[in-house]
Write a structure and sequence with these properties.
Blueprint lengths: L15 E3 L1 H7 L2 E6 L9 H15 L7 E5 L3 H13 L2 E7 L4 H10 L2 E5 L10 H11 L6 E3 L6 H18 L6 E4 L5 H13 L4 E7 L4 H7 L29 E5 L1 H13 L7 H17 L4 E6 L7 H4 L2 H6 L15 H6 L1
Parallel strand pairs: 2-10, 3-4, 3-6, 4-5, 7-8, 7-10, 8-9
Antiparallel strand pairs: 1-2
Helix pairs in contact: 1-10, 2-3, 2-6, 3-4, 6-7, 9-10
Length: 343
């Protein structure tokens, strides 16, 4: 039996699953790396692990110190749990518009959660700016570390050091394309850097929700966006430090009306209880597969569980107000036979 010493040792080495429906639809082999199986429940455990380990190694903080971060949720959960294992306290600044599931998880994990009104990055009251100012105002004899996942290269490098080589080994180096959404840019930039160093012909792509500007930046060299999305934790309108120099070949903007049917298939027909960011990633993988043509191998990231977004994803009124398709099993007369029999 293989055992781990603590939380950080259990981060990574997540399995890869062949996504049957997406593969059959495109004639490609489409795979998802199951980052929702990390101990903190998301791909952001990777960033948390490497940002904290690198900060400790540099002497920026030591056990007993304080970690401060502005986050939409998952990085905060990872930082809090990893910090608990390392003897660190954590303050999280989050927009109040984020899901109640993530707020509850942060408080339950022991974070000092401070919610603030949502504001664009250009506004000094944006949660990222508030977190940075807060970190600068605090003192601890054991150090105060502002994690700054957006511009901290340890985020991107963590995927170069762990996620990419794991996937390469799991798929025997047979990867033709990689696609995922952009939040901080760490996952896409790190994966692209490592994979292209092994084989330059691997196509890397960004899957943007509406309201994000990375697609336009990849295609035209400037940030430009329109619309909005129900997704959380993804969608960027600036070139973060982790995105600078990223080797991204292609990009698509994927509307909620496209990602949700993909997500309902992942949940209802493949048994993968995933959040909306995974839906957009798989929708992006389908787009990339169609662009490359049948017979290729595409990899994407299955980021986190739907359990953190239930109040929105499965709220029929919320979806109807936005003209979005609901989960088929929750609409009247369309529940699976097993549910109708027990209803």
């Amino acid at each position: 039996m293989h055992t781990h010493a603590h939380f950080l040792d259990a981060v990574g080495n997540t399995p890869i699953i062949r996504l049957r429906l997406a593969s059959e639809l495109t004639g490609c082999e489409i795979y998802g790396k199951c980052e929702f199986m990390n101990p903190g429940g998301s791909v952001k455990d990777r960033a948390a692990k490497y940002m904290l380990l690198d900060a400790l190694a540099r002497g920026d903080i030591e056990p007993g110190g304080l970690v401060v971060e502005g986050t939409a949720g998952n990085t905060g959960i990872g930082l809090t749990l990893a910090g608990n294992a390392l003897g660190l306290s954590t303050i999280i600044v989050m927009p109040e518009t984020q899901s109640e599931g993530k707020k509850s998880a942060l408080r339950a994990a022991g974070a000092d959660l401070r919610t603030v009104p949502a504001a664009p990055y250009s506004n000094p009251d944006n949660y990222v700016h508030q977190a940075r100012r807060l970190a600068g105002s605090l003192h601890s004899e054991h150090g105060v570390f502002y994690a700054n996942q957006w511009d901290n290269p340890s985020n991107r490098e963590g995927h170069e050091r762990s996620t990419a080589p794991e996937a390469w080994q799991q798929l025997d180096g047979r990867i033709d394309g990689f696609v995922c959404a952009v939040g901080t840019g760490g996952t896409l930039a790190g994966m692209a850097s490592w994979l292209k160093a092994r084989r330059a012909g691997i196509v890397t792509a960004a899957a943007d929700p509406e309201g994000a500007g990375i697609c336009h930046w990849v295609k035209h060299g400037e940030i430009k966006s329109s619309g909005s999305s129900i997704t959380e934790g993804i969608g960027q309108n600036r070139v973060t430090g982790n995105l600078e120099g990223a080797r991204i070949d292609e990009a698509w903007t994927i509307p909620d009306s496209e990602l949700l049917p993909v997500l309902w298939d992942l949940i209802g027909r493949e048994g993968l209880y995933l959040g909306a960011s995974s839906g957009i990633n798989v929708a992006g993988a389908i787009r990339l597969a169609r662009a490359l043509g049948p017979g290729h191998r595409i990899l994407t990231i299955l980021c986190d569980s739907a359990s953190r977004y239930e109040s929105r994803l499965f709220n029929l009124d919320f979806l109807a107000e936005r003209g979005l398709p609901p989960p088929p099993w929750l609409t009247r007369g369309e529940a699976p036979a097993a549910l109708r029999a027990t209803g």
